[in-house]
Fold this sequence. Notes:
This protein is an alpha/beta fold. Helices cover about 40% and strands about 10% of the residues.
Amino acid sequence: MKKLSHIQNWIFDLDNTLYRGDVDFFGQIDRKMTDFVSRYLQLQPVKARAVQKEYLAEYGTTLSGLMAVHGMDPAEFLDYVHDVDLSALAPNPALRAAIKALPGRKFIFTNGSRAHAKNIASHINLWDLFNGSFGVDDVDYIPKPQRSPYVKFCDSFDINPQTAVMFEDSLRNLKVPKEMGMATVLVTSGEDWSHEPEAARPAGTSTKADWVDYITDDLPSWLVDYK
Ligand SMILES: [Mg+2]
């Protein structure tokens, strides 16, 4: 039995949340990050990948680490890593219907760029359903799971966290929302993410934590049945 009748604001992460984590799509972005780090820091790909994942674990995103440690300008990085082939991503009519039927406002909040959110959500035929969207370029490039981007997000859209629910595939990105008073939903998939740093990997079917209210591996069905 879910207790969500008070929810007026539905906040969705983008990557591996609004499309399934077991679709082979995010891997492209991941590989482009490795290419970028390799070129930018003049490292062999294996070493570049280690640095990429170290920054992901330590700073929230690879981008954030590159900015903090190397003073990198974020724009070129974001444009490069989000320039990907979208053909593996198909619209999900069941997800569209389920989000459309939700009462209240709906938002996207991603650690990717603002343009990436629009590009992907448009491609999978969801973009018009959202009342607002934030990328990491809307929050001074300070990513989730740090606290300040969530506060800025809620302030910008005049969201009372007590009336909000957040959907995420990243366990650590739900901790601050829970502390702020939001309900939290972890979206999992059967994908094996064990190659990712433990602190930063997307949730698997056995992931759990006391700041997660609900777990689902089938977001459309969960949204239809949420009451
Ligand atoms: Mg995600």
